[in-house]
Amino acid sequence: MKKIKDERLIMRNLQNIKTVYIVQTIGILGILGHSFLQGGADEMRANPLWLLFMLTTILSAYLSMRVSVENEQSVQNPARSFRISLLVLMTIIIIVSTLTLLTPGFELPDALLIGSILLICGIIPIYYIYRLRVKEQEDMEE
Question: Which of 17, 33, 24, 14 lies closest to 52, judged by CA?
């Protein structure tokens, strides 16, 4: 199979892939919606398509981050952005953990668990963007 070199054909192929992805996502959401209507949220999350949908959504978000960093107009200081993001993340974690602790029926272990989950889920994309910005800055210097 020959590699496509015509830019028009490459763009058309990317548009076709985008269309297929959209149709596939709508189909998955339809199946998950049907599962939700038939058995509720637990039934929907038990469906293997839920895992597939979550993985493709997360992958799409990370790929979009890469494009966003490469498309930034001004050169940003990666370390400064990283520190600001960490400060915002810690503020959110403290607020959510405090509110969890103040909620009846929840105790300190619950607040710590929720705070830990938020920390892990927040630190991964923050660090990923930091690494992308550092790499972009190194590429600009060369």
Answer: 24
